[in-house]
Each structure stands twice: as structure tokens, then as C-alpha cells.
Amino acid sequence: MRMSFRIAIAGKGGVGKSTIAALLIRALHERSGKVIMAVDADPNSNLGEKLGMKVEHTIGELREDLLKNADNIPAGQSKQEYVELQMKLATVEGEGIDLLTMGRQEGPGCYCFINNILRTFLDMAMDEYDYVVIDNEAGMEHLSRRTTKRMDRLMIVADPTKVGLETALRIKSLASSMGVEVGATALIVNQIKAPLGPELRGIIEKGNFDRTFTLPFDVEVEEFAIRGRSLHELHGSDTLYLQVKELVATLVR
After folding, report:
1. Coil, strand or helix: which one is 174?
2. Which of 106, 152, 174, 223 is the one with CA 20 to 30 A from 136?
3. What residues contact 193, with CB distance under 8 A and at least 6 apart?
4. In the prediction, which pLDDT does 26 show?
């Protein structure tokens, strides 16, 4: 049975998590030559914008529609078939990337049956790709609900501050408590402007990550974020992008 190589990226807001996710997806496609499945699992969905892809529908909207209109599924279609079709319609196809956006979290009501269907088909969809990159929120709510049963790599992005690094350690601990299979963990210390001092290095050591990467603050990437430009327009020789490409080289099988 074909199984995808799954990379989950997490981190608190403001650390450049989705930026790193977008650059990693671009670099992974360029290196592997494969179509990458990108899953935006952050309720504050902006991965599509960073990838230059327009999102029309989300899984959250599909879930709400199923809850409200469970009895109005077209004749001759099972709920499973309907969900599979709608998930395909919600997938945005781009150049070397297919994007699925999870969207809003659950509102009031019972979603157990719907979530079981969604999990089944999301896992099936993921395994149609060689590589899957999941951009999570800090609390990793979607993972805690078993949106995916396993991660080959869990990459936690932090800024170079005491609070930022301690938050990264808590996210790693949270992931361990979920019972999701994790192959290896990595810490990405992002937006570095000066060498890390002994206190910050000490916090990193406490995390016992399998790998640690440091990435520089990048003025051009910051300008792209301010202007809302797609990171696929970023020059291939950009300093941050080149370092993300080196990081990807350690991931590709």
C-alpha cells in the first residue's frame, strides 16, 4: 500500500510558521519533482495566499453543510461518496501543489459521524501523494482530533525569544500526549537577527529535538508578507529560501 511522507508544521502565531510552510512546500516540489499535497489546518487560513492559490471552499464549510443538510444528499449517492466528491471539489490545484484548506473549527452540534467520514477520506487523499505538508495551528487541534494518524516529521517553528522557545517545547509535549505516531521532531528557530545566547541555547537543549535548524530574518520575505504577495514569486536566490532548500534536503527520502 502506498503511504505518503507527511510533514506537520506547528508554531504559535507571529513566528512565520505559514511562511516557512509555503517555502518548504515550494522547495520540496522543486527537489522531488512531485506534486505536493498542502493541508492548511490553521483556522487563521493564509497558506493559500502565501502559495498564490485562491481558496473557494474549505472542509469546515463542508462539515457544516453536512450537518445542516444530511438528509438532502442527492439521490443515488451515499454520504461517503458525497464527502469524497466535495473534498475533491474543495482541493485547489496549482503548479506542483494541491491545496486543501480545513477552515473554521466546529460549531455547536454533534460532528462525530461527519468527522469519522472526513478523517477516512482525508487519510485516503493524503496517500495519493508522495509528500504531504500540514500547516497546523499552535494547539494542533486538527491533529488532536486525529485528522491524520501519523507524522513522519513534526517541525515546530519558534522565534528566538525565551517565550517563543518555551512555547515550542510545550507544543512538542502536547504532540507527545496525543498518541499520534511521530517519526522525528525538529525545531526551526526563525527570524534570527543575532547569535543565540546561552539562555536560549539552554532552552533548546531541554527540548530534546531530533534536529534543530536556524533561519535568518529576511527583509524581502517580510516585504512579501506586508504586501500579501505569493512566496512563489520570491527569487530563487533569496537567502531564506536557499536555507529552506538545505533543510528540505534533509527530509526527502
Report:
1. helix
2. 223
3. 160, 216, 217
4. 95
